[in-house]
Amino acid sequence: METNSSQPTRRRRNFFPGGNITTADFISVCTLVILFGYIIYSQTRQNFSKETISDEGVIPTEYEEITASTTSPLAAISFDLPKEITFAGESVPLAIPDVRERLDKELQINCYLHSNTIFLIKRANRWLPQMQAILRKYNIPDDFKYLPLIESNLLNVTSYRDAVGYWQILESSGKELGLEITNEVDERFDPLKATEAACKYLKKAHNKFGDWALVAASYNRGMGGVERALDDQHVQSYYDLYLNDETSRYVFRILAIKEIIEHPAKYGFKIEARHLYQQEPLRYVEVSETVKDLISFSLQQGANYKLLKRHNPWLREDRLTVKKGKRYKIALPS
């Protein structure tokens, strides 16, 4: 084919002025750089994975061989169940297959609710010793201190059923158990007074059932509901009852959180003592007359309204009406 001599001859374009690197050469170099980078990344990621899962108290070392072959930096482990476990001094029959599986389910669930369980452990350090002292005053087993952990995560929440506070107490039940509940004062929001009220219920339920697992189940379903289930099904044990899903899981949720809090490292939770929330030193100001403005009151006491509300969540308004002969103790930082 003839070419027009007047047209310029096409040349390969150099990306670097004055250089001899062609487009093909440039692409080849880039490919090698990317490939080398990927190899380095893969090796680093694998080493990070090994270091993470072998960290003392995070994941037991016996699982390292299993996790080394995985592409994920954190392995999902099925944790062993304890060989035996008790609730309130009563043995849990783990030899029954469904009982074992129900505990297994709640334990694995709580092991993998990482942030939620971590904060629960931190809050428990502040509140459980105080609650345990009240339980012992009423001769209630220590294991019931774990009940508000599954009820509310140790937060002053209100449920869709209008159950309130750490112990999730209904208004009618609270009044029956001696708590003051008005527009201005709601003692269900006071963690320690609510514990006192819960102890009264638990003691009454134990007088009825004589079995602590049934007592715990009744806290969820009510004494009447548990009693009807026992009568209808002609059994005597919580572990033999066919129940609604929530009550069926209830005692096992308590057992799971008990096991994790008592043995955190065993289940992958490494929390240093300095990270745990501590009980805060408080002083109490006794009030026998109406306080029209709690904001001004808090400032006069050398605090502020935020701190007053933090330590007195049972005060529901920014004022406090005090009837004749009535006294309240308001907690403030010491």
From TrEMBL:
Membrane-spanning ranges: 21-41
Keyword set, alphabetical order: Membrane, Transmembrane, Transmembrane helix
Pfam families: SLT
The keyword Transmembrane helix is annotated on this UniProt entry: yes
Top-rank taxon, per record: Bacteria
Gene3D superfamilies, per the entry: 1.10.530.10
Domain Transglycosylase SLT: 140-234
InterPro entries cross-referenced by the UniProt entry: Lysozyme-like_dom_sf, Transglycosylase_SLT_dom_1
This protein's name: Transglycosylase SLT domain-containing protein
Classification lineage: Bacteria, Pseudomonadati, Bacteroidota, Cytophagia, Cytophagales
